[in-house]
Design brief:
Pnp Oxidase, Chain A; globular; about 40% helix; alpha+beta
Length: about 160
């Protein structure tokens, strides 16, 4: 594991990073759009992110969000941590309403279907996720009674 990745994991557990991170997401999305997913802010610390494109549950329009994926089985795990806020992120609501989506990963567009994980499968996935990004445990503590959603994005 690179020194930058270790630093990123450590910073990810700091409360101030959630505030800063929420402000950096739009910038990261612009960078990834312009480079077709080849460059991102998270990528600079050794975490290859994805841009998830969902269909808006009310608008029906494409909605993009950069996320930290974790390779798992035949797909990728993504979490609706919302930086530890008390409510679920909009993209997770969209994915529940319209599971067919697309990810942009290292310049490749991959059609996926999102599946909400529950029970033992979610617990196994959570362990895999927090091994890569321990800050998710901190977000989980901050989110109150809300259980953070974990999705498996499987190629279609």
């Amino acid at each position: 594991m690179s020194l930058l990745m270790k630093l990123g994991q450590r910073l990810g557990q700091q409360e101030w990073l959630a505030s800063v991170g929420r402000k950096l997401v739009p910038l990261d999305l612009v960078v990834q759009r312009r480079t077709r997913g080849r460059v991102s802010l998270l990528g600079l610390v050794g975490i290859p992110p994805v841009v998830l494109t969902t269909t808006g549950r009310r608008s029906g329009k494409p909605r993009e969000v950069p996320l930290l994926p974790v390779k798992f089985r035949n797909g990728y795990l993504v979490t609706g941590s919302n930086w530890g806020q008390a409510h679920h992120p909009a993209w997770s609501e969209n994915l529940l309403a319209h599971p067919d989506a697309e990810i942009l990963l290292r310049g490749r567009r991959i059609p996926v279907r999102g599946r909400l994980l529950e029970g033992a499968e979610r617990a196994e996935a959570w362990a895999a996720i927090t091994k890569v990004w321990p800050g998710y445990d901190t977000y989980d503590e901050r989110s109150g009674d809300r259980q953070i959603r974990v999705f498996l994005l499987e190629p279609r």
